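Box 3.1 A note on notation
Throughout this textbook, protein chains are presented in two layers. The first layer is the amino acid sequence; the second is a token string describing backbone geometry. Keep the layers aligned when reading.
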Amino acid sequence: MTVKKPIRSATAGVILIIVSVLALNIIKEGFRTGITAEWLIANMICIALSVPATILARHLLARDADPILKDSHSKIVLFLRPFHADASLPKWLTPGDLNYEQELGYCLTNVGKLVAVGKPGERFATAGAARTYLHHDEWKDRVAELIRRAELVIICPGLNEGVEWEISTTLSLKSLRHILFFFPGGSDYLNTLASSPIPVIQDLLRQPIGKARLAWFDDDGCVKTLGYEGPSRWARYQKYCNKWTDAPIYLEALQPVLTRFGARPGFAMRFMYYTPYIYVAILLSFV
């Protein structure tokens, strides 16, 4: 049963990223040489080029989950969410920026590759988790198959029938040790689920979630929130070294999950961990 897939092109995506970077460099060069009427016109043209080029490039470079799923030896982390949650992902990001799906995926690389079901009918894939597209008549069977296969299932809860079915199916097929709940907006997001009939969601609503974005269950079945509450070295790291990403927060929060699976953070996350020290070493080299 064939399903129409969104447009993807790695070549076109890379070309558009290059165009975007060159346009931004032209803008930066104008500040160095002085602001003139010609520069203002060039600036407007470059902005008009770089913004849509970046948006389109990220869509064209979005990962396809089908090659991953065809490899029976590939470990996966399944991300289940209501499709409307995709709207909360930033539409415009500079080439170095990450959205929360990418941040989760990089943190959990050594547990499995982050995979999600794409929204049917979308013209361009969403950057983040690798997406597979399913026909309406087969989606429940395929999602149940993916749940069984996944090393870890991350659930972004919702109130629609499809997501409630996914949560109930996950709870019936996986132990709580292999389930992680994700709330993009912490307790504010969770409070929108007050009418959910699912007991686990009601259990989560009774917890002091606060700013936490992740929750799981320990070996005794108790809810443990994984998030960021107050200053730490990660707060200073994000403030001074990496303002464009929350990856350090996710990495700190996911340490218990990584420990449970005996996995280390992905290389990209380990590199970002040492970024402050690299900055200090560069500064000291000029002393």
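The chain is about 50% helix and 10% strand. The longest strand covers residues 76-80.
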